[in-house]
Amino acid sequence: MSDGYGLLKGKKGIIFGALDERSIAWRIALACKREGADFVLSNAPVALRLGALDALGEETGAPIIACDVTKDDEIEDLMNQTKEHLGGVDFILHAIGMSPNVRKKKEYTDLNYNWLQQTLDISAISLHRVLHHAEKMDVLNDGGSIVALSYIGAQRIFSKYSDMNDAKALLESIARNYGSRLAPRGIRVNTVSQAPTKTSAGTGIKGFDGMYTFADMIAPMGNPSADECADYCVTLFSDLTRKVTMQNLFHDGGFVNSGISEEMINDLAKVYGDKDDE
Ligand SMILES: NC(=O)c1ccc[n+]([C@@H]2O[C@H](COP(=O)([O-])OP(=O)(O)OC[C@H]3O[C@@H](n4cnc5c(N)ncnc54)[C@H](O)[C@@H]3O)[C@@H](O)[C@H]2O)c1
User: Fold this and answer.
1) Does the reported pTM lie above 0.70?
2) Which atom of ligand 1 is nearest to the CA of 212?
3) Domain count, the chain
4) CA nearest 151: which of 241, 210, 215, 82?
5) Residue 99 has pLDDT above 70, yes or no
6) Fewer CB within 10 Å, N side or C side of the chain?
7) pLDDT-derived band at 204, boundaries 50, 70, 90
8) Which has the closest alpha carbon to 174: 136, 250, 138, 121?
9) The ligand 1 atom nearest the CA atom of 151
10) Is the residue at 4 inside a domain?
11) Is the CB of 255 under 6 A from ligand 1?
12) Where in the sequence is the domain holding 177, given as residue range(s)?
């Protein structure tokens, strides 16, 4: 890792979703620190009880604030505490996703609808809630930048991703809609659509290894790591991307625009045979 470029010097933020060292939010917090930012770390009370986040708090000097993002009073409390620690903030990272249907391996055609509500509430509507409270409580500074992490399941069908496909489509829509409302203040709202990444949420999906390998074989550059995602997010939080807003930005090594790779054609020919060889 480089020593950084000072891209976030003087910037303050809120980072949601770091659970353990593999979390994309964890890697983003380290990159933000490297670039000179100060921030608070937040996660659900149940995640904080696991205790891993304390180490990141110590390493980055960041206060840790518990907040279940489905609860308005907890978000208000988080905003109040953030103000006490930092004053206003220039960036927010939303790296939150959870589906009880995916966890319990429910097929898309057999969803538990109460769990579907939870999936949407935790993984998508929470972005709306966070922005609503941040704006109303005057926590967001003009010229700020919000990034939420998404996945290509919002546009394409990935069967094992079940109702998370729908949650990501809603998340990206909320980013666009809120982005248009915050644009007059120079505040950007974008989603970064990251390739499959070996984290707790990622590997909890049935068939994840197949999805990971498939994306890696198709993407001309291969799958980007969580640290590479972190570097990309730093640029979006920085002043170098001041007019990039209301976008879903693919960070996937070229996967989104690829059909099939030479490597995969050759591998499939080995398994199924190739007419040209007959
Ligand atoms: N891992 C992948 O393959 C991948 C690919 C594309 C996008 N993403 C997205 O990246 C984001 C971060 O996921 P990750 O892969 O780093 O996994 P992760 O498991 O490390 O992070 C998910 C986080 O969501 C938090 N969370 C769940 N319920 C919450 C609640 N009610 N309130 C507050 N926080 C809550 C968890 O505690 C956890 O920290 C998610 O939005 C995920 O969908 C992941």
Assistant:
1) yes
2) 3
3) 1
4) 215
5) yes
6) C
7) confident
8) 121
9) 6
10) no
11) no
12) 12-277
